[in-house]
Amino acid sequence: MVGRYCYFIGCRADQEAVTRHFEALAEELAHRGHRVIVIREGRRVAIVEKPQGNPAILAWPSRWPTSPPDVRFLYRLIRRERPHCLIGNFGTANLMITMGWLMRVPYRVAWHRTMSTAVFGDSRSPYKTWWREKRREIVYRLATHVAANSQSAAADAQQVYHVPPDKCFVFYESLADPLPGLPATPPNNQPTAICVARLAPMKGQDTLIRAVALLQEDFPALRVEFVGDGPQRQAYQHLARQLGVADRCTFTGIVPHREVLTRMAAATVCVMPTRSEAFGLVNIEALAVGTPVIASCVGGIPEIIRDGQEGFLVPPDDPRALADRLRIILSDPVLRARMSQNARQRFLDHFELRTAIAREADWFEALVGSRER
Fold this sequence. Notes:
CATH superfamily of the largest domain: Glycogen Phosphorylase B
Distance between the termini: 21 Å
Strand content: 15-25%
Shape: globular
C-alpha cells in the first residue's frame, strides 16, 4: 500500500463541477502521500480508468452501484486495499457505507447534499418517499460521519434523518476558478437573465416565467434563458405561451459546463427560483464569473448569497417579489457593477477550489490520524 492512509472516494462521473471537487480532494490527499482510489458511477463510456495511478480511478461494474457485481467488486477492493476511510456521494453512499460497516472500515463518511424536501417533493409515490427516507436514515446510522454541503443541509440531516449533531460536519461546495479560461464576453445592451437547473417542480422555473410576465411592459426587451432539461419542460413551455412570454423564454436544454459558464458570464443576472436547495452549486458558478444572483431564500442559499450584496434573496413561490428585484437590478447599472465585484470577491474568498480542498484534506487526515493517536 502506498502512503500512510488509504481513502476510497465514490463520486459521479457525469456532474463536472462536483466530480472535479472530489477528484481535487483525491489529488490533494495523494500529494500528501496517501493511497487514494476514486470509484466513479455513471456511464462507463465517459470514464477513463487509471487503476495503477495514485489516485487510482476505477468504475463500478454497473452504471449505478446497486447490483451483485458491484457488491463483489467493492468487497474484493476493500479486502485488497484495506482502506482507513470510505467517502460516499450520491448513489455510491448506500453501498459504500453499508459494505464499509460490514467489513469494519474504521471511518465511513456519507455526503448529504440534497435536502429532504427536494427528494420527497419530486416523488409521486408515498411508498417510495417512505423507503427513500428510511434507506437514507439507515445509511447515515451506519456512517461514522455525515458531511453536509451547508449548515442548512446539516440541520436537515439532524432533523429528518436523526443524525447526531456531533456526527455532522459542513464542507461547502467549491469550484476551480473558471474565469481565466473563459472567452471575453462583450457588453450586452439587451437585458438577459439565465436560469440553470433541472426542469423539475422543486427548481421553481414556473415562478420565474410568471415574473417575466409581470415585467412585459417595463422591460419589453428582457430575454430569459433556461438551461437544463427535465420532466417539466413541456409544461413550462406551455405556461410561457399561456402568459404571452413564449418569445422571451428560451429553453436551451443541456449544454457543456464550460458553455454554461460562458453564457452565465454574459447574462445580466442569474436567477435561482428554487423551492428547496441544500446548497446550489449554480450560485457559486455565478459568483465565480461575477454575475449578480437573485435566488430563493431557502436551504443553504443564504449562506452563499448575501441579500443586497452579491444579489437579492426572495421568498420562494412569489413571482411579484422576484419581478420587483429583477426590476431593480435591470434598471440600475451602478448597482449591478457593485454586485458583480462583490460576487467575484466572495467566490475567491470562500468557494475557490484550492482553498476549500486544503481545508477538507486537513480534516480527513486529522480524522484518520485521531484513531492512531
